Amino acid sequence: MKTSKSVMKAAAFLAAVMLTAGVPAAAGKGMFSAAPLTAYAEDDFTYEDNGTYSYQKYADHIVLLGSKSVKDTLEIPSSIDNLPVTAIGMYAYQMTGIKSIVFPDTIEEIGMYAFGYCDNLTSVTLPDSLKRMKLRTFESCKSLSEVNFPDHLVETSEYSFDNTPWLEAQRKKDPLVIVNGAVVDGRTCTGKVTIPSGVKYIAGSAFSKNEKITSIVIPSSVTNICEDTFWYCSNLTSAELNGAETIGWGAFGSCNKLTDLKISGKLKSIDGGAFIDNTATATITFYGNQSAWNSVQKSSDDAFLKRANIVFDESHQPMEEVAGDINADGQCDRTDAGMLLKYLLTTGTLTEDQAKIADLNKDSKLDASDFSRIKQIILNK
């Protein structure tokens, strides 16, 4: 069965309206899901149903929307119609009774609400091919206690693991939940927070509604401040964005005590809603000159920016990567040395980014020389 693109656009619009209203679409067990909004929404596709799966078919890939029959173990196909399945669509398996998932190494994206409210799902091993997870992917999977990430950065989105035992366990280890250079959650952090150097990504809404955080320092390695990152952090008074090139919608919305904002001279754009409902009067220190600030794409009607006192500082040196800080916690110590030693003894693994940091002599290989240098850094402290 095929459906015209005009019909698909109408379905996508309906899904968007539901999402905006905060209403998750409840897909019953074994039911096909509504057509999702995906990263591929601008491409031409057809909606198809082969009796086993429903899916969006593009010229070079498939977005899986659901399965006719959902069993305890869900096996995601690697291909349909001789095309790779690269994404799982919005609501695809929400509220189903699955207990486990087998992903192929073709999946690059998992869509909004794709596995939300799957009460019997206990563990997930994400595929090596995965690049990003959208809004509330595994939200309220009340039995999900184990999540195995691939050995590289995965971009998570708002509330990807909200209300899961896995997230609660990670918060108990450290309120700043970081996985492979990505901040997944920081909503239980308190006081002054400094994101470790080497972190490259902070999920949207990672700190939203956190009323206990008072300041944030973000390293130069983070170039995008995502949507709603600090939305309604009502006691946040200062923020330092050392490498930000973009500031997304709602990033500092309703942060009504934000009076000290420091921004990277690399900044290219500020979304028109970045400071929505923010009544604070701030001093904004821009790490560049007035000409560079004037070239930043931003709304001339932004009330927060119009109230602010803009100060230009061209001498600032941003927070840089700490040599030998393999686990990206802001310091080089015995933990980092242990990680490198395990790798050299082939009893441990390092991600590509971790390997680059561990390569202290910059010869594109890891050996005893790098281990010797990391020991020297620790001894010289």
Model description:
By secondary structure, this protein is of the alpha/beta class. The chain folds into 3 domains: 1-173, Ribonuclease Inhibitor (Leucine-rich repeat, LRR (right-handed beta-alpha superhelix)); 182-321, Ribonuclease Inhibitor (Leucine-rich repeat, LRR (right-handed beta-alpha superhelix), Alpha-Beta Horseshoe), CATH 3.80.10; 334-379, no CATH class. Helices cover 17% and strands 22% of the residues. The chain contains 7 helices and 24 strands. It has helices at 5-20, 165-173, 290-295, 303-307, 334-344, 352-358, 368-379; strands spanning 2-3, 46-49, 53-57, 62-67, 73-75, 79-80, 83-88, 100-102, 109-110, 123-125, 132-133, 146-148, 177-179, 182-185, 191-194, 201-202, 213-218, 224-225, 238-241, 246-247, 260-263, 269-270, 283-286, 309-312. The strands form 6 sheets. Strands 1, 2, 3, 4, 6, 7, 9 and 11 form an 8-stranded mixed β-sheet that branches. Strands 15-17-19-21-23-24 form a 6-stranded parallel β-sheet. The longest helix is centred in the N-terminal third of the chain and has 16 residues, at 5-20. It is globular. Residues 1-41 have low confidence and may be disordered.
Radius of gyration, Cα only, in angstroms? 22 Å
CATH superfamily of the largest domain: Ribonuclease Inhibitor
**Main beta sheet strand tally, sense and closure:** 8 strands, mixed
The tally of structural domains comes to 3
Oligomer: single chain
Q: How many DSSP E strands?
A: 24
Q: Please name the CATH architecture of the largest domain.
A: Alpha-Beta Horseshoe
Instruction: Outline the low-pLDDT stretches.
Output: 1-41
Annotation field: number of helices: 7
Structural class: alpha/beta
CATH topology of the largest domain: Leucine-rich repeat, LRR (right-handed beta-alpha superhelix)
